[in-house]
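Collaborator request, handled under Task 6.
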Amino acid sequence: MESAPRAYRLKASNAAPPSSTFPGAIPLAVLKLLVNPHDRIALRWLLGFGSSDFRKGAYGRLRKYCEEQNVEPYEAMTQLEQGQIRISRTGQLQTRFKAIREELESLNELTNDLAKFVPKWLLNSLGVDDPFYILSLDLSLTVSDSAQLMQALLDAVIQPEVPPEVTEVRIMSLHKSKGLSSPVVIVAGCVEGLLPAAPDADLTKAENDALLEEQRRLFFVGLTRVKADPKNNRPGILLLTSSRTMSLADAMQSGIRPAKVVYGTAHVHASRFLKELGPSAPASKKG
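Structure tokens returned to the collaborator:
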């Protein structure tokens, strides 16, 4: 069997009417929550979807309860829906969660029958000609259940097929660099607030800590993309760049919180990841 296509350009589709419980929502969030109900990011996204403020206040009260009682948000929402607990002013969250739970229950019946699962999961929100729908159908032929489908989709979207060795300059995210190598690697933008990104005020400390660890792991992926050629006496070259200043507009657009601002110029901190390289790392150079 030939392998399924690995690279797709995702785009919105208007081929199907918005009749799904989650019209316009990212279907992958639904799939991730189906596979793992404790996926806090997927649950947070789906609970907030459709609201101009992402139901920030109600979710903040839910988050506070979870931290105080040491329970997962999905568990707390289940208890709320069943009337086992009460959290004030979370009615909209409960309405959303009921719709989410019903959607997941209808999909759960088909998790091992992907021929029926994919159309039920996607056709109400995506058209048959949508690249994501086509990709999901193709990959469903190579896996056996929804969990494997989710992983295959993540691999296909995050890590499309790229030749491991080319002579051209390649510009890509840290995600896409996995599995590749080059004699010269430049990791640009090692600035606090960009790499790693600033904490999300809507997430719990545990969720932000998990995101920080994921960004640290990706930084390590970037560091290890360098490939030396010892036979020809050619060492690999790794450059990590960090700006000290930038325009305030650029800093704000990138979500960077400046250390200070002087006449429209933002002074920024180098990424904490650079400091974590340890004393054996080469000294930084101005340039």
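The cover message to the collaborator said: "The longest helix spans residues 205-223. The domain at 27-158 is CATH 1.10.486 (PCRA; domain 4). Please let us know whether this matches your experimental observations."
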